[in-house]
Amino acid sequence: MKKFNLKVLLILALGHLVTDIYQGSLPAMLPFLKDKLALSYTMTGFILMTANFTSSVLQPLFGYYSDRKTKAILLPIGLFCAGLGFSLLALQTHYVPVLFLVVISGLGVASYHPEGYKTASFFTGEKSATGMSIFSVGGNIGFSLGPILTFSIIGYLGYSFLPIIILPALICTAVILYYRHTISIPVLEYAKKQEVAGIAPPGAYTSLFVVIAIVIMRSWIQMGLLSYIPFYYINYLKGDPLFAGKLVFVFLFCGAAGTLIGSPLADKWGHKLFLRGSMVLSTAILPLMFVPFFQQSYLLFVVLGLLGMVLISTFSVTIVMAQKLLPHKLGIASGLMVGFAIGTGGIGVTLLGLIADHYGVPLAMKSIMVLPVIGFLLSLFLRYKE
Length: 386
Fold this sequence. Notes:
By secondary structure, this protein is mainly alpha-helical. The protein has 2 domains: about 5-195, Growth Hormone, Chain: A (Up-down Bundle); about 205-380, Growth Hormone, Chain: A, CATH 1.20.1250. It is built from 17 helices and no strands. Helix 9 runs antiparallel to helix 10 and helix 10 packs across helix 13. It is globular, with a radius of gyration of 20 Å. The two termini are about 15 Å apart.
C-alpha cells in the first residue's frame, strides 16, 4: 500500500515550482525579445505557440516514454533544460537560436510534468487528491512567480543579467539528484509491476475521454478569463489596467488555494461528485461577473475569487481520476491531463478571438458561460469507480 510522504512530495513540488517559473516567464519575456530582435507580432506569437506545443501538447509522448522506460532521471534533466533554455534567451541576437532555446526549455517542461505527477502518485497515500494537490500547487506558485522574477531581474539589474535566472534550476536539480534514491524506489517497484500489468478495465478509455473533455472545458474557461478580463475591463469598460491585473491575480491566487482546500473534500465526498459540483457552482457564479451591481464594486473580486477557487479546485482531482482509470499507464494519463487537455483547452481562446473580432469582446466573454454547463453535462456520462 502506498504511504503518504510529505518530504518527497515537497521536494517534487519544489521541482514543479521551479520548472513552471520558466514556463510562466516566457510571456513576460516576449516584449523584450520583440524589441531587441525587431520582431513582428506574428513572429513573437510563433515563439509562444512553439513553447505551448513543446511544453504542453507533447507531454503525452513523454508520458508514454516514462511508462515504457521508467526514467526517473527525466525529473532533474527536465528541470535543468527548462531553466537552461530560458536563461540563455537574453544572449541571443537572431531569431532561429531563440526558437531553438524555446524548444529546449519547452521539452524540459514537458518531460518533468508526466514523470513528476507519476512519481508523486506513489507518495500520496490513500488521500490521493490531497497528496497530489501539494505537488500541483508548486506549479501554480511557480507559474505566478515567473513574470515577477523576470521583471525584477530586468528592472533592477538589466536585461543582460537575465541568465542568472538559471540559479533556481541549478539548486533544485542538485536537490533532486541528492534525493534520487528515495524518489526512485517506488518508481522501480512500479516498473516491475508493469511487466505483468493487465489491460485497462472495460470502459476506462471512454471514461478517460470524458475526463479529458471536461478538463478542456475547464481550461478553456480559465484561459479565456485570463486573456479577456484585461480586454473587457480595459478596452471595453475603459477601466484601470491595474484593476484588471488585480482581478487576474485574485482569480489565480484563489485557484491555487482552491486546489489545496478542495482536494481533501474530493477525497472525502468522492472525486466524481466533487467534479460535478465544481461545474454546477461555476455555472452559477460565472454570470455574476456581468451583473452591473458587481461590476461597479469591489465585490467583483469576491466573485472572481470564488470562481477561481471553485473552478481550479478540480485540477489535482482530474489528474488522480485519470491515473486511476489507467493505473498501468500513469505517465500517459498524467501527460494527457496536464499537457494535452490543458494545452488543447488553451487553443479555445483562439475561437474566443474570432467571436470578439466579429461580435465584440462582451459577447466573447459571455460565451464562456456555456462552457461549465457543457462540463457538467459531460460529467453525467462519466463512469468512474472511487
